[in-house]
TrEMBL record:
This is C2H2-type domain-containing protein. It comes from Haloferax volcanii JCM 10717. InterPro entries: HNH_nuc, HNH_repeat, Znf_C2H2_sf, Znf_C2H2_type. Residues 2-25 form the C2H2-type domain. It comes from the Archaea. Signal peptide: none annotated.
Length: 333
């Protein structure tokens, strides 16, 4: 059985878990390049595309002139995506670039300073620090230094932006492990059951991303707090059962093999950048989960679980994502 970390629903097949996470928790978003609308299922996205008609150059220019007249100047990319009838992507597809679309109606583009990724992530972290949890999209619009749309445009979706920024903010004193575990226990006592990811994010003192950074999985955090399949220091699932020194050596071999870089395609976060962003080293992910190496008598085969071929280097954000789909593995380089 496969369990969703977000709501504790269980599924017999990992494919069913993947579909559930994508639809129920918005890991999968499909964005229309013409109008900017997003959809959480591929079926609804395809239905939307099927009902569209092609937008002509004249229609795009008419809308751009209207919006320019309304503002008294050409709109920026963010303004067009937020309040225009068509997305910036539609203009890029027709004119080759946003700037060329502006020039086609006789205006010069507004000079825009491209905000660095780290500035956007810092804005999310700063607001999360004020709220005590990850901000919602409306909260980012109301209280953040940048709009949630700017973040979504940069990282592909608001959910992706939150994942990328879901670490302990730089400069904040490291929260003691005992405090993190005590917070799980406090919520469990109040709720009558171990908290889910959703419950921790909405009702807990710390965002669940903090637990992922410290324990590398939510289940491991709950087990360390005394909840889950096993308890205490005798927990046969944790890596200490293999020996701390031996695990550190194996961990280093994996990092070296992977060039000290996250192996998710398109992610170039290396060890130094990960330390700067998260205050921790890159994570080592078990492609086939360690629970699959526990036999019917409860014996854990650490040798097989920790084989090099079963380990891969990931950043914290992508580690959280791939744990939802284990034992499926990332389509690595």
């Amino acid at each position: 059985m496969y369990e969703c970390d977000y709501c504790d629903a269980t599924f017999e097949a990992v494919s069913n878990l993947g579909g559930h996470v994508a639809s129920a928790h918005r890991y999968g978003e499909y964005g229309c390049e013409t109008c900017g609308e997003t959809f959480t299922s591929l079926a609804s996205y395809r239905g939307h595309l099927g009902g569209q008609t092609s937008i002509g150059r004249d229609e795009l220019q008419t809308e751009l002139r209207r919006f320019t007249k309304e503002l008294g100047r050409p709109p920026t990319r963010d303004e067009m995506n937020a309040d225009g009838a068509y997305s910036v992507t539609a203009y890029r597809n027709e004119f080759g670039s946003w700037c060329d679309a502006i020039r086609s109606i006789g205006h010069n583009p507004v000079q825009e300073r491209r905000v660095r990724d780290e500035e956007l992530l810092k804005a999310i972290r700063d607001l999360a620090d004020e709220l005590g949890r990850a901000p919602t999209a409306p909260e980012m619009d109301d209280q953040g230094a940048y709009s949630q749309r700017t973040c979504a445009n940069r990282f592909g979706s608001w959910a992706n932006a939150v994942l990328e920024a879901g670490f302990e903010p730089a400069g904040q004193p490291k929260i003691a492990t005992s405090e993190l575990l005590a917070e799980i226990d406090r919520l469990a006592s109040r709720l009558g059951h171990p908290p889910t990811v959703k419950e921790m994010n909405s009702e807990g003192r710390y965002h669940v991303a903090t637990y992922y950074d410290r324990f590398e999985s939510w289940r491991q955090a709950k087990r360390r707090a005394g909840y889950g399949e096993s308890h205490g220091k005798g927990d046969g699932w944790n890596r200490q059962a293999w020996g701390d020194t031996r695990w550190r050596r194996q961990r280093h071999r994996v990092l070296k093999r992977d060039d000290f870089c996250c192996q998710t395609p398109g992610c170039d976060v290396d060890q130094s950048e990960h330390r700067a962003r998260c205050g921790t080293e890159l994570h080592i992910h078990h492609i086939t989960p360690r629970r699959e190496f526990v036999d019917m008598d409860g014996r854990y085969d650490a040798e097989a679980a920790n084989e090099l071929d079963n380990l891969i280097t990931l950043c914290a954000a992508h580690h959280r994502f791939w744990e939802q789909f284990a034992p499926l593995q990332p389509d690595i380089r």
